[in-house]
């Protein structure tokens, strides 16, 4: 066995390292319901530690390179210049070189000053709390469009903070370290930002394509979308504030995977390939100056007075409608005492309407004293007995709802179902004599 | 399998370098790659960590060392990106192993061979990245063949310049 491992130790080492990395990948990637893989948005503690170490190792040299402005181009130019110095008059050439370097440095400083001045003006105008940061490095991979800035959690930067410039949005903070942060640019394939087209108000999600150009995906075909239309942030992603410039429409292409859908390619407003300084929005709480705060307080006070006036007006209207209701004729019954008015009867908000008095009452008439088939009712001696007087007829009605009803004459043929009607006042022919 | 067990023989052609070179050269490659990609974007068609991996693997002629060097460089690159850690690691592990294994049998002093080796191994590394991302992980990744081609050409050109410079670091008896 020992000879096997000794003989194939190269292959064993290869397989062990590959297996360890595959297991590590399996820990980081989860399976979505549709069967595809998805990288966890937030790194695990172990992965985060590895990234932190790698970044801590690379960041200091990058800072040195960036701060000293000794780029590869500058080094090459210095090398060429030094060769020329040896061939020519050394003192004179050195002076010229020094002046050139100083001029370049001053020019660079002036340019940086102008950029910073524009950034400060933009920051003053901007109502959110921001932190200015410098881009100091990138991921080194074209498929991972992230860059590093020289500000981290110690400066108040948090994950998912928006990175912007005076020209437009740049990306969002993906990972935060104590003194640096990783920003995911908007042209990365895994980025996402809610955007809206300024004129057509078409909303969509912005992400990068393989060429590193941002595009709005999953848009239904719409021939109103034209080249040059401004694209703004929609504000629905809770990362970028609403209304920030994103870019302009470059061209519209059909979605190769779905019919009827288009992708809108965007020319970003910010120079994503030449980023130096960016602003990180650390708080979306509005930052108002004292004058703006005073205006807000005044506005609030006026709004309170206006609300009180509206309330008073509503109360007056309610009082007027109550007075009007009391004066309405249909709701007042003059025959009833004031405490029994239907208007004040809260127990029966909708009183039952009584049927009109029948012209020819018979035994089926409501209130006649008996119902058909009701044999328990004592029979009258004379079924055709007629109430003698109006007063007798009136006594069968309790109470009379309206005065007009009481003026009606007594109806003939009514069955005397009440004790009052059982006493015949007159005898009809053929009656009991 | 004699290819895999090549380092058992003490080859007089194996080059040796100071320990500092093993630490600083890869670190410099990683830092420059991270910095230059930001400066030269979108024309950063090169992969300095891969070139350095291939150089040490070819000259050391040790598949084990090539494997470890490739894994370290790839994992470091993954750590600097926002991708899963291990994608470039696997690609460069295999690349380093193959470079060292092939380096046993060929004349690594020949510039044409170095150029061709860098070109082919760069293409292989790009292909492995796509394979791991799409097939093993099932992640969406748009891939452009001409970018891989330009990167391979860029790596070959850089190798022509860089390899003689790195040769000067060799410890000579």
Sheet having the most strands of chain B: none
Helix proportion range of chain A: 25-40%
**What is the alpha-carbon Rg of chain A in Å?**
47 Å
Oligomer: heterodimer
Estimate the mean pLDDT confidence of chain B. Answer: 84
Q: Cα distance, first to last residue of chain A?
A: 141 Å
End-to-end Cα distance of chain B, whole Å, is 31 Å
Percentage of residues in strands of chain B: under 5%
> Any idea what the radius of gyration of chain B is?
16 Å
Element-level helix/strand string of chain A = HHEEHHHEEEEEEEEEEEEHHH
User: In total, how many domains does the architecture of chain B comprise?
Assistant: 1
- Please give the order of strands in the largest beta sheet of chain A: 3-4-7-6-5-14
Largest sheet of chain A: 6 strands, antiparallel, barrel
Q: What's the number of extended β-strand segments of chain A? A: 14
- Individual helix count of chain B: 6
Describe the structure.
The complex is a heterodimer of chains A (433) and B (173). Chain A is built from eight helices and 14 strands. The model of chain A is unreliable at 371-433 (pLDDT under 50). Chain A has 433 residues and is α+β, with helices and mostly antiparallel strands. In chain A, the strands form three sheets. Chain A has a six-stranded antiparallel β-barrel with strand order 3-4-7-6-5-14. A six-stranded antiparallel barrel of chain A has the order 8-9-10-13-12-11. Helices cover 35% and strands 19% of the residues of chain A. Chain A is elongated, with a radius of gyration of 47 Å. Chain A has a domain at 43-118. The termini of chain A are far apart. The relative contact order of chain A is 0.07. Chain B is 69% helix and 0% strand. Chain B has one domain (15-167). In chain B, 50% of the residues are buried. The longest helix of chain B is centred in the last third of the chain and has 26 residues, at 111-136. Chain B has helices at 19-40, 48-60, 63-80, 87-103, 111-136, 145-167. Chain B is built from six helices and no strands. Chain B starts with 18 loop residues before the first helix and ends in a 6-residue tail after the last helix. By secondary structure, chain B is an all-alpha fold. Chains A and B meet through helix 2, strand 2, helix 3, strand 3 and strand 4 of A and helix 1, helix 3, helix 4 and helix 5 of B.
